[in-house]
Amino acid sequence: MKATIITISKLLQSILTICIFSAFSIAQNTLSIEVGDGTIDVLYNSDADIGGFQFTVEGATVTGGSGGDSAANGFMISCSSSMCLGFSLTGNIIPAGSGTLVVVSADITGDVSLSGIVVSDATGNALDFTYDGGDVYGCMDMDACNYNADATEDDGSCALDDCSGECGGSAVEDECGECGGDGSSCATSTIDILYNTTTDIGGFQFNVDGATVTGASGGAAADAGFTISTGNNTVLAFSFTGATIPAGSGVLVQVEVDGDVNAACISDVVLSDAVGAAIDNEVTDCFTI
User: Do 171 and 163 meet the contact criterion of CB atoms below 8 Å apart?
Assistant: First the structure.
């Protein structure tokens, strides 16, 4: 009795093992492709006899279809510029299994794939077929700007947006915080403000446009003992003792600025003489009064 129980137990284990193996070894019904030079081999894997098929070719212009197990089993093959159809007028079938379904001639124009797949069995009933595109290579990093949600194999192409928002771009911020800048937008420069006058100067004021004034000193204004102050991009200088800058020409004052010195220019110039009367003036070359 004990021997009989052991035998039955082993038999049940064998049956269970066979069932599990069979369940996992059922072929998935798929079409896949191998792209050559002007040809597309359409491969099949089927657990049922195939009585007919139809599919659309993406990424290529179809010029014909022939060969494969379709031709071997007497199928009629008809192709348009984008679709191929195969069937038998005599009821022939392509036996279950795998192999080359048909060879499609085509002008390759892009990434080739199959869509609109319809496969039927010997009695015209639809078979559940899918397209097996193999591994899809692409960026699999969800934080990357070129993340490919369909990718199954990372191809090392992941990239990030640069400071300008270009995916994979090379632009970086300079020390001034400017994207793609050369550091000049916050560089400190000294501008010599020149003068040429026939009247003694008792005081002056002007604005600096196109750059940020950080200070002013030196020049004839300092030599005359003028008090020089800056604020809101305005430079102001005068004497508490009534001193003047003698008529003539030279460097009136040196102005320190942050930014692109080539974009800077003075405006709204006010010159006064020793008694506070305005002196007519004009600005030439941005820095000469």
Answer: yes
Cα separation, 199 vs 145, whole angstroms: 65
The one-letter amino acid code at 177 reads G
Q: What pTM did the predictor assign?
A: 0.44
Q: Which CATH class is domain 30-134?
A: mainly beta
The ranges assigned to domains in the chain are: 30-134, 185-279
- Residue 14 φ then ψ, to 5°: -65, -40
d(Cα 183, Cα 55) in Å, to the nearest integer? Answer: 59
Q: What is the CA radius of gyration of the chain?
A: 43
Which residue intervals of 61-103 are DSSP H helices?
68-72
What CATH number belongs to 185-279? 2.60.40.680
- Which of 122, 126, 125, 128 has its CA nearest to residue 51? 122
* pLDDT tens, residue by residue, 50-92: 999 999 999 999 999 999 999 999 999 999 999 999 999 999 9
How far is residue 152's CA from residue 36's CA, in Å, rounded to a whole number?
Answer: 23
With beta carbons less than 8 A apart as the criterion, state whether 287 and 194 touch: yes
Distance of CA 227 to the CA centre of its chain: 55
